[in-house]
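[[Encoded backbone]]
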Amino acid sequence: MSTATIDDKGKEQHVFDRAHWQDRLDVLRSRYHVPGAALAVLVDGEIHELVSGVLHRGAGDRGLVPAAHPIGLQLSRNARPRSG
């Protein structure tokens, strides 16, 4: 989720709801029994990185995922969903 505001120059600015997306990542990771996940989101030129879970379940590593290949998503007023 993001919310949009208009700045003093009349340009639309999006605000990234980090808590919402962190909760969503945690819920989905747990629901599908994924040991660790990372998500990077680009909003108006700013990258927001989120991690959830463990690096290696079998090794007993309880640290957050320190390195992963993030999935990118750009939220902008010009973004259009791809069809097909």
In short: Residues 2-75 form one domain. The radius of gyration is 16 Å.
